[in-house]
Specification:
α1 links the parallel β1 and β2. The termini are far apart. The longest helix is centred in the first third of the chain and has 20 residues. The protein has one domain: Alpha-Beta Complex (Spore Coat Polysaccharide Biosynthesis Protein SpsA, Chain A), CATH 3.90.550. With 197 residues, it is an alpha/beta fold.
């Protein structure tokens, strides 16, 4: 079976979730909880062989290491540079593997949902993406061994990745698409949780 190494970029907690119009301490707490939930969930995945966190915040790296997750320090001021350095590090640590990128702000993420997406990516010879709930962003990218995909994460990334030849996983589960960027997202996810309860 193809082995998959996953790179997770995590922004400094004081700068994360800047579009959430809430007090800084609340925003920081939300970002920390999202990060911890994502890392714990990914660590329980059966389809992911290894995980590498890219973070400038030593507290984030320390938390990741308590879970047995490898880390590299983020030396970049922007997301795509951080991801690219993480991918290079992952390729050096685990050569010849499929690589993946997962965002760290998926409050509904489950290991079963991640496993389902990773298994679908493994079955494809092309890079695959998961488009977020809004239909504009990207929460997951898979890169088969030997492929070179420019990093295009950020607002409007779904269209940019499609232009690079990446194929969306159209039936990706809600848990993989529901990222959290704004207060509206927070309210929507709370309503979704009430309906699912």
């Amino acid at each position: 079976m193809i082995e998959v190494s996953l790179v997770i970029p995590v922004k400094d907690l004081d700068r994360a979730k800047s579009r959430l119009k809430v007090p800084l301490q609340t925003r920081r707490s939300i970002a920390e909880q999202l990060m911890q939930h994502t890392l714990r969930t990914v660590n329980a995945s059966e389809a992911v062989s290894n995980v590498l966190v890219v973070a400038s915040d030593p507290g984030i790296r320390n938390y990741a290491r308590t879970l047995g997750i490898d880390c590299v320090e983020d030396m970049h001021d922007e997301l795509n540079g951080a991801i690219q350095s993480g991918l290079r590090a992952a390729a050096a640590l685990w050569p010849g593997r499929m690589l993946g990128v997962l965002v760290s702000d998926l409050p509904c993420l489950t290991s079963a949902a991640l496993d389902r997406v990773v298994m679908e990516a493994i079955a494809s010879a092309r890079p695959r993406t998961v488009v977020d709930r809004a239909g504009t962003g990207t929460t997951f990218l898979s890169i088969p061994a030997g492929c070179d995909v420019p990093m295009r994460f950020g607002r409007g990334s779904a269209q940019r990745f499609a232009a690079e030849g990446c194929v969306p996983i159209d039936d990706a589960p809600f848990e993989m698409r529901a990222d959290l960027d704004t207060v509206t997202d927070l309210e929507d996810l709370a309503r979704q949780g009430q309906r699912r309860a």
